[in-house]
């Protein structure tokens, strides 16, 4: 049995960022051996255990094979013959496919260290395309690390576009979409999340109310940037500087939704766009199961 620290804890430590949660991979063990050692099994779909003292998660090394549609259609294989490299290969990004042994040595089979140095978000393998949730995860990572000048690799963004155009995102449940969105709204640069979704075509699929704002002009006297979509992301960026609260940031994101309903012949004026936008806010919040306390402020703004 060999135990390795993996994923985000390794990545953030190498970036000099605080490590919040630590996840471990166990190679060469079995569920019974883990139970005999005092670990408590918590995973239903694959063997994940809680350490008896630290309560940190320890997962048996596993592989995943696509067996159905969406992000839940996977068959997992966990056994003593699954190597660390096999386990790391199923991860989304190379910077998340790093491991550290008990001597502090970094194991990097997929050039995660190089991509960390070059500030690149790059997918590990073509299997990335089997899980549509990863489109949102990459957008969230782009927002989370924007202040460190990370960017998405061209080939990864191209794959995200392919997934979107193939209709893969339609398999996502509203709860998962909101969970990723809420996490992105807590980052230092939440506007990047929505810009990435627009870049890969996912904004039109998941947030059509926001996507429809791009290309809609506003009076240059009040909005020098003119484009309402650009204005919305700029405003969200400013809101993130002023408040850490998700409800404030989400309300800012939604504040001009009504302008997307203005007939083009009336542009660039948008009389009555405030009341008109309330219905769109309610529509968006109902579709994504947005919590009432977050929805209520967005309706007021």
UniProtKB/TrEMBL annotation:
GO aspect biological process, one term: tRNA processing
Cofactor: Mg(2+)
Primary enzyme class: transferase
Coiled-coil stretches: none
Entry-linked Pfam families: HD (PF01966), PolyA_pol (PF01743), PolyA_pol_RNAbd (PF12627)
Catalytic activity, EC: 2.7.7.72
Signal peptide extent: none
Record-annotated HD domain positions: 228-301
Family in the record: Belongs to the tRNA nucleotidyltransferase/poly(A) polymerase family.
NCBIfam families named in the record: PRK10885.1 (NF008137)
The protein's name in its UniProt record: Fused tRNA nucleotidyltransferase/2',3'-cyclic phosphodiesterase/2' nucleotidase/phosphatase Cca
Organism: Escherichia coli
Name of the gene: cca
């Amino acid at each position: 049995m060999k135990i390795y620290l993996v994923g985000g804890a390794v990545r953030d430590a190498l970036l000099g960022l605080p490590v919040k949660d630590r996840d471990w991979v166990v190679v060469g063990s079995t569920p019974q051996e883990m139970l005999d050692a005092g670990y408590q099994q918590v995973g239903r779909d694959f063997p994940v255990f809680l350490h008896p003292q630290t309560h940190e998660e320890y997962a048996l090394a596993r592989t995943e094979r696509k067996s159905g549609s969406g992000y839940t259609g996977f068959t997992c294989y966990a056994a003593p013959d699954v190597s660390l490299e096999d386990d790391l290969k199923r991860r989304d990004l190379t910077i998340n496919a790093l491991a550290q042994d008990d001597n502090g040595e970094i194991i990097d089979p997929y050039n995660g260290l190089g991509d960390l140095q070059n500030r690149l978000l790059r997918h590990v393998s073509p299997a990335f395309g089997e899980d549509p949730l990863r489109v949102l995860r990459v957008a969230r990572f782009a927002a989370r690390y924007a202040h460190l000048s990370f960017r998405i690799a061209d080939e990864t963004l191209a794959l995200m576009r392919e997934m979107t155009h193939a209709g893969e995102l339609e398999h996502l449940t509203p709860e998962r979409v909101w969970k990723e969105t809420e996490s992105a709204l807590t980052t230092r640069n939440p506007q990047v999340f929505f810009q990435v979704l627009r870049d890969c075509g996912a904004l039109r699929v998941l947030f059509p109310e926001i996507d429809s704002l791009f290309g809609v002009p506003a009076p240059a006297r009040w909005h020098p940037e003119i484009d309402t979509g650009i204005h919305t992301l700029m405003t969200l960026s400013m809101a993130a500087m002023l408040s850490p609260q998700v409800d404030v940031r989400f309300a800012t994101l939604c504040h001009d939704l009504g302008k997307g309903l203005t007939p083009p012949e009336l542009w660039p004026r948008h009389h009555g766009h405030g009341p008109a936008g309330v219905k769109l806010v309610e529509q968006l919040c109902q579709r994504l199961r947005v919590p009432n306390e977050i929805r209520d402020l967005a309706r007021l703004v």
